[in-house]
Amino acid sequence: MSEASDDYPVDTVAHAWLVKMRGENPEAHRGEFDAWLSASPDHKAAYERITKKLAASAILKSSPRHGTAQTEQRRGRRPAARRWLSAGAVIAAAAVVFLAFGAGGAPLSGPLGDGALTARAAEPLVTRRGEIRSFRFADGSTAVLDTDSRLEVSFAQATRHLRLAKGRVRLSVTNNEQPLRVEAGGGVVTAEDAAFDIGFEENGALSVTVLRGEADIRFGGAPETGNPRAQVLPSGRSVTYGPGGKEQLPAASPTQQGSREWPSGWADYRSVRLDQLIAEANRYAVKPIIVDDARTAGLEASGRFRISQPERVAERLGQLFDLETVKRTDGIHLRQR
């Protein structure tokens, strides 16, 4: 069974999404569901697998020979149309954590029911090292926050304003009378009905990648000022800005090289130096991977890695390159045998 997160198998998360998308108001979850489905081929395969299992179960249940319809009629009971929505599936929906934010800081219940997390609009969204978490705002927009990140929220009736203090976030913005504005690194990204990644590189540069729609990026002032350093970034484009909003050449960093699947914890590399790959994995590590020699650091790898699980990355690199893997108190050491 493939895995979807550190805690939940991909089939469990797929089952949870099936529950949500066949429940009440599925369109309210459409953006986040589409983002999850497209984040990895494993997600789509798992969702199709669970859907087929459900269809097969429904066929069997309605079978005149093997089904339960006649038994239920004999017992005078109405068929339980939603019996397949097991308690376990509903609980599994918590694998994707949603927080609802109300205007003016009013607390709202999350869409998972009375036991869901709640928060106020003035509260920041924060992830610890190793965490990747998803959030939903009251307007239907969503945010997937990468490890060790902080996103400050200020939603009111006439404004949708965010500030990325550190880390990286994927935003899926719903169409609204007011565009969503994100401040980060001296710049302002404005978008409507769009999806984009925005985050900081290790050197402090700001990276923006538009996945859907387009985004307006400005430095040194609000959009109304007509700042000449404004840029409209269309879907499929990425750009990196240095200090003062000066555009840089694409960084040869794991964050830029890796796939767009980071919300799922995975990354694909055609060719990446081990020291770069390890630097990206260490963003999620409590105990880092440590390369003990320059020869190992200069090796190049390709393939698909579970980047959010550094210990697994170290084990796989050890197998691929026949490296010695030694766990110590300061971290996991990789070195030539």
Automatic annotation (TrEMBL):
UniProt superkingdom: Bacteria
Location of the FecR protein domain: 125-215
Ranges annotated as spanning the membrane: 84-103
FecR N-terminal domain location: 14-50
Keywords: Membrane, Transmembrane, Transmembrane helix
Region annotation Disordered: where it falls in the sequence: 241-263
GO molecular function, one term: sigma factor antagonist activity
Family annotation (InterPro entries): FecR, FecR_N, Ferrdict_sens_TM
Coiled coil: none
PANTHER family xrefs: PERIPLASMIC SIGNAL SENSOR AND SIGMA FACTOR ACTIVATOR FECR-RELATED, PROTEIN FECR
The protein, known as: FecR
